[in-house]
Amino acid sequence: MDRSPFRKPWDPKLALVGKKLFQGKRLGFDDGMACLTTADLVGLGGLAHDRRRARFGQNAFFIVNQHLNYTNVCENGCVFCAFHKKPGTGKGYTLSPEEAASRIAESPLDGLQEVHMVGGCNPDIPFGYYLDLLQAIKRARPRVKIKAFTAVEIAHMAAASGLPVREILTRLKAAGLDAMPGGGAEVFSDRVRKRLFPNKIDARSWLEIHGLAHDLRIPTNATLLFGHVETPKECIAHLLTLREQQDRTGGFQAFIPLPFHPNRTALSHLPGPTGVEILRLIATARLMLDNIDHIKAYWVMLGLNLAQTALYFGADDLEGTLVHEQIAHEAGAKTEQGLTRSRLEELTREGGFVPVQRDTFHRRVASPCP
Ligand code: V47
After folding, report:
1. Does one domain contain both 66 and 112?
2. Is the CB of 348 under 6 A from ligand 1?
3. What ligand 1 atom has the least distance to the C-alpha of 83?
4. Are residues 168 and 312 in the same domain?
5. Tell me: the pLDDT tens digits for 332-344?
6. Structure pTM?
7. Quick check: CB of 21 below 6 Å from ligand 1?
8. Taking Cα atoms as reference points, which of 364, 359, 321, 326 lies closest to residue 343?
9. Does residue 261 line the site of ligand 1, with CB under 6 A?
10. Which domain CATH number covers 279?
């Protein structure tokens, strides 16, 4: 059933974007700016919703997954992050591979499909630990797929072990790595990176590592952390950089916009983005990223109502059940730490969409994993 609530844009710049889309033309920088700065939120939503509907109809995807953070010890000290603890302070934790595996073995979820696993750059962890971690989880749940380690963690493993990134990725894949998440991209702008996270790998390294992963047939995701000190121009440049990388290497499965949560961070004086800004970013991403199939409305960071609404603004995927999310919650997220499969399905239906369970590779799941 078509429950689209939209009308054609009244903003003349947006109308021109609509014309270009109708003609099958690719959008450029100025089009992106017209989208991200328009006051015509409803008109923008209409364009984005048309696009998502042409590809996915009323389907909205989700996965039965569990998030797991193996360590919160991190030497990068990014000012937007409330999750990390400095090395050597004794305040952090690191799970042993057995502890991590037993959390997955004892997962409260029936039919767990995926483990999403990331952590800090902990200088005390040897490379062999990451291989043990993957193998222990695969032993505990052999059919579960593991989406793990951001490009930032991969670069950290390479620097600490002295091994080339390609070798690191090859060994991780052999040990059970199925896909990589999109975290750590933040904003590609050098200006923002110098100001907020000068110790993190630069944008070029993040992109190179994803390119190498794609070359090794490890699919990955991409993110944008927004709503802090970045400008609309920096957001559009970020989207265009991702689109160019995807043209070259083609392995991004999904884009996840991450609205900044300021609580308990060194940027707690900032308000974070408004609901309107979040919807504008999601809709703009749907229109600009014509070569990345899926746009996630990450319910933990959006809140449930806005995540439902985002499905009308270009998003087609709600991420998953998660079980125990930590990164957004340390920074003040008010959402639940996890949702049951039936709650996710209910939310989707209440929003006017059809819930479709997917796997890590965004294929429809016919029968859940044992
Ligand atoms: O890498 C950290 C960001 C990311 C804050 O690939 C923050 O499927 C907002 O990347 N406010 C982790 N964001 C989350 C992430 C993710 C989540 C769900 C699915 C996927 C996927 C990826 O969260 C970090 C960082 O970029 N982050 N602190 C904060 N205060």
Report:
1. yes
2. no
3. 28
4. yes
5. 999 999 999 999 9
6. 0.97
7. no
8. 321
9. yes
10. 3.20.20.70
Same domain, 38 and 69: no
Question: What is the Cα–Cα distance from 243 to 252, expressed in whole angstroms?
Answer: 9
Residue to mutate, 113, 147, 225, 294, ligand 1, most ligand atoms under 8 Å from C-beta: 225
Q: For residue 257, how far is its CA from the centre of ligand 1 (angstroms)?
A: 9
Picking from 147, 148, 168, 146, the residue whose alpha carbon sits closest to that of residue 157 is: 168
Residue 362 lies in a domain: no
Are 228 and 353 part of one and the same domain?
Answer: yes
- Asked whether residue 7 is assigned to any structural domain, the reply reads no
The verdict on the CB of residue 331 being under 6 Å from ligand 1 is yes
At 324, is the pLDDT very low, low, confident or very high (cuts 50, 70, 90)?
Answer: very high
Residue 1 pLDDT level (bands cut at 50, 70, 90)? very low
Query: 278-287 pLDDT, tens per residue?
Result: 999 999 999 9
CA atoms within 13 A on the CB side of 50: 15
Q: Which domain holds residue 168?
A: 59-357
Query: Nearest 5 degrees, angle CA 53-CA 56-CA 61?
Result: 120
User: Which residue has its alpha carbon closest to ligand 1 atom 10?
Assistant: 183
